[in-house]
Specification:
mainly alpha, DnaJ_homolog_subfam-C_membr-28
Length: about 110
């Protein structure tokens, strides 16, 4: 495989979440520091969960500090993306493939 083909593969594997990057940049700049109600729980309407079983499920998960599977995967993906900058070549490609597989599971 020549250098051009390697670069093309890297470009296909590259995943960039633009919205997340915009939000992170705003956080770094302090744009969210003075929001009203910061650090306080959201006050959701009582009718937010139409299904009483779903409401109980979310309540139980929250009380037991259990995250939904897609949230766990998202956190894992974010951590792995931070490691990408230190990787090169096959290690970079391997890690990018792992990230893409997790993205497909979400």
């Amino acid at each position: 495989m020549n250098q051009k083909e390697n670069r093309e593969i890297d470009e296909r594997l590259q995943y960039t979440d633009h919205l997340t990057e915009i939000i992170r940049q705003a956080e770094r700049q302090g744009d969210f520091d003075n929001l009203k109600g910061k650090g306080k729980p959201l006050k959701l309407e009582k009718s937010y969960f139409a299904n009483p079983y779903e409401k109980q499920l979310h309540k139980t998960m929250k009380e037991n500090h259990v995250l939904p599977h897609w949230v766990k995967l998202g956190k894992e993906i974010d951590q792995e993306k931070e490691l990408l900058s230190a990787l090169q070549g096959k290690a970079y490609t391997r890690k990018m493939k792992q990230i893409n597989k997790k993205n497909q599971r979400i």
